[in-house]
Amino acid sequence: MRLIFLVCQLGLILRTKAQIPDACALSDTNRPPRNTDISVVCGTQFMDLSIFICPMYNALYNESMMVLNNQFNTPECYGKADWNMTPPVLKFRFPMNESAVSSCNNNFKVTTQVGTGVFADFSNVQYVNISGIVNSVDPSAGMITYRQQIKYMFSCFYPMQYLLNNTQLAVSGTSLAIRDNNGSFITTLSMQLYEDSAYTKILTIPQTGLNLKTKIYVSVKATNLTERFNVLLDRCYASTNPYPVASTSYDLFVGCQRDPQTKLDVNGMSQKASFSFEAFRFVEHKNQTVSTFYLHCVTRLCEVASCRGLMPTCGAKRRRKREVADVIGNGTVTSPAIVVGKLSSEEAQTFSASLGMPSEANYSSPVVAVIVCIVILTILLVVMGVYFVLFIKRRKALLQ
To answer: How far is CA 6 from each of CA 11, 17, 59, rounded to the nearest angstrom?
Structure first.
């Protein structure tokens, strides 16, 4: 009898240290912890964790006893209870920047894999994995405890290369205690067209289209992105369709190979990359008043320390398979439609989308003049030769 009394008394003492709140008394989550108690959202600017609170109380803990990666001396590593939600949750949020990721001792790891899908021709595609643990802090001071330890492991997986065009990408989270969730920084990336080399005047395209050979300046930049990464353009191309699949396309540059009118200004040196090219028309639009096309850029985020080593090595005898590093979710975003007007036959110069060569041989005036002279001289020589042959035959006939 005395033993039963001591056990009951011990239970009351433990219960007073973690009183069950009214919001949990009738909640379905007033039970032992499960793997489904945590949800993880891998956002573009923040990582968000939500964990049911009631199972913590059921296990004789509370929200003040749950901390990120055992960093119990760091206030920002504790969550905030939201009792207005049904069921109540403990929320953790930290921004995707260098200080926030490291302050709570989260693990930041870059891994390399072979490219697949639209990046199948890349030998190295890198991904970032950010992971950590929300664990319970046991206040028991003695050698034993009656509380089970709680660990909620989380992970966000970000690929680091993107195809920039006009498709929106939505990121959603999945509820699991031990989970590798996918995230993307695609919404931090943007493409803008300018009309000046200082990249200050946004390009306005008239309804009649741009004139051929108009300089177009392109800027791809990242905003609200951790300072750990720079923007590196690997390939930019134009297509006749906003969605480049099964449409005519023309490469402005791929690694070291580039169109003669394309110039790279900044690439891999900061969180902004820029280049310029001249307006052209697609051959298939020769019967249309204007030629409309869309610009796409395969963009990757590279670690600042490794960006220079990832730049293509030009001038080598053999071109190696393209390599991609530090990538984050295969998303899609494009430029607005680029419209080029149709000029007269003497002025217009259309380009082949497959080869990037003029559809008709457009030679300069001196070259044409030389060709004409050669043709005329050849004709004169032939005529003179025929004349002399006939003259000699006629003279021989008269002599006989």
So the answer is: 9, 17, 20
- Token pair 């920002």 is at which residue? 76
Q: What are phi and psi of 219, to 5 degrees?
A: -125, 130
Residue 225 near residue 185 (C-beta atoms within 8 A): yes
User: Rounded to an integer, what distance in angstroms lies between the CA atom of residue 215 and that of residue 202?
Assistant: 12
What CA dihedral angle connects 370, 375, 378 and 384, to 10 degrees? Answer: -110
Q: How far apart are CA 274 and CA 6, in angstroms?
A: 75
> What distance in Å separates the CA atoms of residue 80 and residue 55, rounded to the nearest whole number?
16
d(CA 199, CA 197): 5
* Rounded CA separation 285/193 (Å): 22
Give me the torsion for CA of 243, 249, 255, 258, rounded to 10°. Answer: -140
The per-residue pLDDT for range 325-362, each reduced to its tens digit, is: 333 333 334 566 777 776 544 444 433 333 333 334 34
Q: What sections of the chain are H helices per DSSP? A: 2-17, 22-25, 54-58, 98-103, 307-310, 365-399
Structural tokens at position 8:
């009951």
Give the model confidence (pLDDT) of 31-64 as tens digits: 988 888 999 988 877 889 999 999 999 888 999 9
Three-state DSSP at 359 gives coil
